[in-house]
Amino acid sequence: MLIQRELTYFRSIFLSSDLGIRKPEAAGVSLIASITERPTSSFLFFDDTAENVIGAKEAGMQALLVRSLDDVRDALGKLGVDIT
Question: pTM here?
């Protein structure tokens, strides 16, 4: 589970269980784009399932396969986000 420090770097966090939509359904991506009034390309999607990452990419999101908190930290670091 992400700890509070890492979560402060995100403007919003959307969970499929909260939205009532399964990943990687395009309806979920469309809903988030509508809520935030942002293009899907501005989203960063993390998941531990390759199928969901592929689906997110097909929907226009930036998407990364992660297996641990270290994977998330590394991905953010590559994007220039310093979370140390």
Answer: 0.72
Residue 41 lies in a domain: yes
Burial state string for 32-62 with b = 16 or more CB within 10 A and e = fewer than 16: bbeeeeeebeebebbbeeeebbebbeebebe
Residue 84 within any structural domain of the chain? no
Which residue is it, tokens 């992660």?
66
Would 83 be classed as within a structural domain?
no
3-53, pLDDT tens digit by residue? 566 677 777 888 888 888 887 777 888 888 898 999 999 888 889 999 989
Q: How many domains does the chain have?
A: 1
Sequence-distant (6+) residues with CB within 8 A of 43 are: 29, 32, 33, 56, 61, 62
